[in-house]
Amino acid sequence: MSALPITSAADRLHTPLGVLQEVFGYNAFRGQQGAIVDHVCAGQNALVLMPTGGGKSLCYQVPALVRQRRGQGATLVVSPLIALMQDQVSMLEQLGVEAAFLNSTLSSDAAQDIERRWRSGHLSLLYAAPERVLTSRFLAMLDSLHERGLLSLLAIDEAHCVSQWGHDFREDYLGLSQLAQRYPGVPRLALTATADELTRTDIVDRLALQDAQRFVSSFDRPNIRYTIVEKEDPRAQLLAFIRQGHQSEAGIVYCATRKKVEETAVWLSDHGIRALPYHAGLDLALRHQHQQVFVEHDTRDGGLVMVATIAFGMGIDKPDVRFVAHLDLPRTVEGYYQETGRAGRDGEPAEAWMVYGLADVVGQRRLIEDGQASEDFKRVLRGKLEAMLTLAEAHDCRRQRLLSYFDEPSEPCGNCDNCLEPPEMWDGTEAARMALSCVYRMTQHGAHNGARSFGAAHLIDVLRGKPSPKVRQYGHDRLSTYGIGRHLSEALWRAVLRQLVAQGHVMTEVELPTLLLTEGARAVLRGEVPLTMKQPREQLKLAARNARPTRGGINGTGSATRSAHDWIVEFDEAAQARFERLKTWRTTQSKAQGRPAYVIFHDSTLAEMAARRPATAEDLATISGVGARKLAAYGADLLALM
Ligand code: ADP
Ligand code: ZN
């Protein structure tokens, strides 16, 4: 590897655009990045809300470099996760930036060395977790930098962690409020990919960002297609989903419990889909290993599925996750948005797919009611669950619902299940009345026999006139409602019940799965509450229509963004061969350096090289993702592969 001459005017590195182009190798800022960077470079506070993959990191990395070059000192990045820090630091080192992290994985020698570089102001960026930042030792270091005018910027990543209304509250984040008092005049920048209004207000209060300008980007992820289907045989549905176009891709499957994670991973493996489990109960080394395998996975080796609890994912920067599937309902829309947002960070088509059924509604309700939280807190949790249920039950555009949850108006998207195949609607008012009066009669009648309430399956048997042993045992075949719902399918009845529970007309008792009427049921019984519902769809029919999702970039840049996909489509055989050579070269580099392949170059960068076939270092420098350092380090190698 020999160094190539590069022209770089030192002055350019004092400007945001110069840093972006020279150091990061990108041509232009995206969306609000430019405005945010200018604001922060000028020493102002900011709250940045930008979706995953939107490019939050550059919002503090560029100001960190600009401000340091202007002699204003170093930047501290507070980040909750070790994996995230490591990834970011790896990327920055590749770009020739002096960056480091301090966390528990370091030997004490290594940590001391980093502290020394930090104290002397040699680092441009230091990443640390909040619990470390708040130790007296660390604060003393910060004090000393501050006194010498060498503390330039405080960036607080994943800022929603400071709010108990966020989906990922962390006690340690609360203490960060003291940074404002302790270092007045040092600009603070809080960033998050998810926060509803309640959480935003909380972030502002707790981080003392009252005077901070808010930069709210569109939360739309147009390349992600949203689909929510009724749960019937979830594993078989999942398998069909994966086999229909995702077999040789990387994806994440979220499950609610550790047990289910393990079982699902084994089951998928038994069915020929390579799958690894990940949850907080696994041995740390194994967990780490699985994460590593996933992050470094290359689709040339076939598909790979990470089956995980929500313990997995934050800080995983893998750009080419093609699908995120949920086998259980997330508790909040923020959680759903965050988890599904891990798909398609590269802007290429990706899918968010979920199965959802009555048991999810019942289970989530119970978790809240049986929990130890205060009544106030429970009220908020209930509200959040309601919003999630509304999204799951929606018969109109999912994306519109999702975005409106984050206060963002939008038009029907054309890239969700309901837009692509508008569900047939059905007036369920009568059915709802039948179901509720049947519950009423069953509980009345059952009372004589010592039973107070019955589950959904039993109710459906009674409605459909099925003489099961239990129906006979309780004499429910003698009820006037026995068999009144014979004309409707079981699936339809399940949907009716699910919606009644979701809307709070039927309550589910502690003994799962038993049903009781609520106050609200009266109005439904009197026919005062019209219920318009979706006809349940047949799963396989739905799955079969599944063509590849349409394309689109992050933040609506859409087709204007050229992406790896375009280049690949335009590839002739020779370009394809170059692309393969480049990838092989990258694999060798990645192994030799012990870094994930995408840290060296993204697929899209390699694809652009293969398609454009640069002949000189200057040509190479115009390719998106090739900055000065990478050009110097890899330029000769790359040109030789053209
Ligand atoms: P976030 O932290 O918001 O999820 P990242 O900061 O990881 O997003 O950025 C997502 C991807 O987009 C990264 O691969 C990053 O290099 C790329 N990116 C960000 N900003 C730009 C830009 N202005 N031009 C080109 N690529 C960009
Ligand atoms: Zn839609």
Shape: globular
What percentage of residues falls in helices of 4 or more residues?
Answer: 40-55%
- Strand runs, count: 17
Based on the coordinates given, report the CATH architecture of the largest domain: 3-Layer(aba) Sandwich
CATH topology of the largest domain: Rossmann fold
Largest sheet: 7 strands, parallel
N-C termini distance = 15 Å
What does this structure look like?
By secondary structure, this protein is of the alpha/beta class. The chain contains 30 helices and 17 strands. A hairpin with a 6-residue loop joins strand 15 and strand 16 (about 515). The longest helix has 21 residues, at about 575-595. Adenosine-5'-diphosphate binds near residues 33, 317 and 624.
Summarize the structure.
Helix content is 46%, strand content 12%.
Please render the helix and strand layout as text.
Layout (H helix, E strand, L loop, with lengths): L15 H9 L8 H9 L4 E4 L6 H14 L4 E5 L3 H13 L4 E4 L5 H12 L5 E4 L1 H4 L2 H12 L3 E6 L14 H4 L3 H5 L5 E5 L4 H10 L6 E4 L7 E7 L3 H10 L6 E5 L3 H13 L4 E4 L5 H13 L7 E5 L12 E6 L6 H8 L9 E7 L1 H13 L4 H19 L4 H8 L11 H4 L4 E3 L1 H20 L7 H8 L5 H5 L16 H13 L3 E3 L6 E3 L3 H5 L6 E3 L4 H6 L19 H7 L2 H21 L3 H4 L2 H10 L4 H5 L6 H14 L1
Parallel strand pairs: 1-6, 1-7, 2-4, 2-5, 3-4, 5-6, 8-13, 9-11, 9-12, 10-11, 12-13
Antiparallel strand pairs: 14-17, 15-16
Helix pairs in contact: 2-3, 15-16, 15-22, 16-17, 19-20, 25-28, 26-28
The structure holds adenosine-5'-diphosphate and zinc ion.
